[in-house]
Structure formats: C-alpha cells, structure tokens
Amino acid sequence: xKFKLTLVALATIGTMASVQxxxxxxxxxKLTPAKTEAVxxxxxxxxxxxxxxxxxxxxxxxxxxxxxxxGSAEGTLSGRALVQQTTVNSDGVVKTDAVVRNLLTGELGVxxxxxxxxxxxxxxxxxxxxxxxxxxxxxxxxxxxIMQAPAGANLTELIESVRKSGLVxxxxxxVVEKLxxxx
Length: 183
What we know:
It is a single chain. The chain is α+β, with helices and mostly antiparallel strands. The chain has a domain at 55-177. Helix content is 30%, strand content 30%. The chain is built from 5 helices and 9 strands. The strands form 2 sheets. Strands 1, 5, 6, 7, 8 and 9 form a 6-stranded antiparallel beta sheet that branches. The protein has a 3-stranded antiparallel beta sheet with strand order 2-4-3, with no helix packed on it. The chain is flat.
C-alpha cells in the first residue's frame, strides 16, 4: 500500500513539474501581452531625487475644501480639492497635509502628520509623547502605536529625531494614497 501511494505521489509531482515547464501557446500570448518593465537609470534617478522615502514633495499644490475651490480645482485627493498655490513654499519642509508624489507609482498622496511607530517597550511610547510632543491616536499592544505630530512640525526632521532617539525600532511617516489591489 505504501509503495502504491509513493508511486502516485511521484507521478503527481512529475505531472506538476511538467505543467510548470510548459510554454504559453502563441494564441494565448496574443491575448495577454506580457508587461515587462526593466529598471532603468531614470527609475533609479527618480528615487534619488525623493524628498523622503519614495515621495517627492509638490510645494506648488495644496489641499482645500471642495466647496471653496469649486472653479480652480485641478482634481481631488482624499475628498478635498487640489489647488495650485500662488505663493510656493520652496523651503522643502514636509508638513501635515502636504501633497506628495510617489515616484514609483506616480500617484499623488497626502502626508497625514501621523507616525507609525514600533517602540522598544511601553515606557518608550510615553517618553516619545513627552519628548517630541506627540499625541497617541491608537496603540496596539504595548509596543505599536500611531501618533500625531504637533501642528506645524517639520515632519522629516521629527521622524529622523524619533529614529535617532533610541526609543524605537522603526518609525514611519504615514502618507495616504490610492491603494491598488492585485488582479
């Protein structure tokens, strides 16, 4: 009985291996064109020019309530209107509600001003709140938290200071952008 089961298992594995090794028929290849995207020097250069992570700050765009920007809106993002600013903030400071572009996907996003934090321990979360003026939005367990930065804070400097404090294992700045689901 064991010998028969072994033979059936080997036959099944052999069949699966041969199925995986078969090539797509020319008829099917016509229906589903292959999307191949090679990493080029342009792609790498784009990421090098990012302001933080894979995001590039767009200082000439701002978010406004849709009711106020009825005629001048260039689109919507997170339920608010995207408007062209007349005075451009060129200092490169990332603040809450800043509009950014993901250099990998090309999509626009909004900086929320929240930090996702994996702390060393529960006491570290309390010290972060005291030292950096962060407000706890939500905690999960005793080491994971989402915290809101103070109003008007330079978020890139804040996130670097939090990382260098030694109180966290990981800290990330949250950006809201369009979510794509795989087919």
